[in-house]
Amino acid sequence: DKEYVGFATLPNQVHRKSVKKGFDFTLMVAGESGLGKSTLVNSLFLTDLYKDRKLLNAEERITQTVEITKHTVDIEEKGVKLKLTIVDTPGFGDAVNNTEWLRPLDVEFMKALHEKVNIVPVLAKADTLTPSEVKKKKLKIREEIEQYGIKIYQFPDCDSDEDEEFKQQDQELKESIPFAVIGSNTVVEAKGKRVRGRLYPWGIVEVENAAHCDFVKLRNMLVRTHMQDLKDLRRMQEMLQKIQEQMHTQKE
Ligand code: GDP
Ligand code: MG
């Protein structure tokens, strides 16, 4: 079976005029090295964006800490073109020795960005936690986002004319934040089907199994249902920012 990313639904999100030109989307991944960012991106877009990367030794990793890289890839599905730009922030926070989520550096990072980008928090390597640990951690992260005043992407309110199924799906999405995700670059066999997953002595965790993690929810949101909103909102925020800056310079 051919795997699909699913962005062919994009024409439904925007004016048909843009279909011919194709779409562009920029996604930045942030977090310490080894967290699973590259694997997740590869799993989301089914492309090996990082195939040319070299393995770095420890010393190189340190010097590389906050070097930001950009990968661009054109993908096409059912005649719909998507120009995808991935901004990778390898090893952000590596130099800081702290194991708690939302340490000061993460908070500062998010606060510096939250007016400019739409932040979608994820909980990486969900397969290394038990379901109840995932639940607890999600709760804690949501509390801390609130506590530190970090503005994350807010799902738009459903139109009143949306059907019940859509509303329910949207509600589920909101409640899943931060998305607990699993990434994998390998295809394994589970119950006779070849799926993207991770093989353990006790069994297989499937990336695209909703019972195993929120990967499909995250991907649907990013590419099938909310891509246009994520982009529009960012533009609006850029505009607001410019207006605020102008007001500042006028005051001075
Ligand atoms: P990055 O430095 O954040 O880009 O992390 P990578 O994607 O390079 O992954 C680092 C290591 O974690 C690799 O050995 C991956 O195979 C592993 N890894 C990535 N995603 C997952 C996951 O969801 N679960 C588990 N258990 N390991 C993962
Ligand atoms: Mg990486």
TrEMBL record:
Superkingdom: Eukaryota
Any GO molecular function: GTP binding
UniProt keywords, alphabetically: GTP-binding, Nucleotide-binding
The keyword GTP-binding is assigned to this record: yes
UniProt keyword GTP-binding present: yes
Domain (Septin-type G) ranges: 21-100, 102-249
Protein name as it appears in the record: Septin-type G domain-containing protein
Originating species: Albula glossodonta (roundjaw bonefish)
